[in-house]
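RECORD TYPE: protein structure
NAME: 5-formyltetrahydrofolate cyclo-ligase
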Amino acid sequence: MLPTESRSTLRKYFRQQRNALSNAQQQLASVQLLKQCKSLGIYQQAKTIACYLAQDGELSLTPLIEDAWHRGKDVCLPVLHPFAKGYLLFVRYHPNSTLQANRFGIPEPVINLPDIIPLEEVNLIFAPLVAFDEQSRRLGMGGGFYDRTLAPVLKNALETHICGVAHDCQKVETGLKSDRWDIPMQQIITPSKIYRAS
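PREDICTED:
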């Protein structure tokens, strides 16, 4: 699969690739991903991390979330912003959080004002993706939610660290084309390797 293919074609192909993984492969990938993340100083030092709940074959962060709780870190999840269309809020997630499905069918915490965590207070964000390349460029689902929400990280030079998360099979062998609004990842983390932005 070449990056010269349309983005919609790439998305379809790599979604099929990750959905073709067996439950055993998915579970092993989650454990291996946790090992990779535990080797990162930024993860060890982070007090607040943003994760996601896996859907559509995405690499599950459940072991990572449980490890973060065990270490006393605050964990938050992306929630569709109720007033700003196309944007996300980060809402604190704990073992007793009440979840509800959003309009895409994705579970997210019910919004309570004290649980909303401002972007500038999130030290590390683990972002899902559909495909990536060696230069840590990320191809998302096409909605632009992360790009719009994370734009202040660049604009305001926030210290928030952004890592893409993917299965190894989601790697494009040659470079992906970037649009000017695409938010770069500092790293892409897979079960077998950490790719750093050049």
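COMMENT: The mean pLDDT is 92.
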